[in-house]
Write a structure and sequence with these properties.
The chain has about 100 residues and is an alpha+beta fold. It has 2 helices and 4 strands; from the N terminus they run αββββα. A hairpin with a 2-residue loop joins β1 and β2. The protein is rod-shaped, with a radius of gyration of 25 Å. About 0% of the residues are buried. The structure holds zinc ion. The site of zinc ion has 8 residues, from loops.
Length: about 100
């Protein structure tokens, strides 16, 4: 087997690079472990972005701004919007009446 010095150098460089990537990922996992745990319990989506993590609550997929009031929640005479009951959002899964019960 013939290996040139350039080949050894390239192989060594690839090994060092892989080691650095692995260490950086482990450091990120350690730094974000508690936050990731909280997000996981809440049911949030977690995505890795380089050295950072992005969290997103999938419940935002269920809602949209009310078109009647433009998301303000205010109706025509200063009262609550009749479509969204003053929330400014429309929930496609849960009826507004269920959310207003206390
Ligand atoms: Zn509205």
């Amino acid at each position: 087997m013939n290996v040139s010095p350039a080949g050894i150098s390239a192989g060594l460089w690839a090994l060092v690079r892989e080691h650095a990537i692995t260490r950086r990922r482990r450091l990120g996992d350690a730094v974000f472990a508690e936050i990731d745990g909280f997000a996981w319990v809440q049911g949030w989506e977690i995505s890795r972005l380089g050295t950072g993590h992005r969290y997103r609550d999938p419940r935002f997929d269920r809602v949209a701004a009310c078109r009647t009031c433009g998301g303000s929640g205010k109706g025509e005479c200063g009262g609550a919007c009749r479509t969204c009951k003053g929330d400014g959002l429309l929930n496609f899964v849960e009826a507004p009446a269920a959310r207003h019960r206390v």
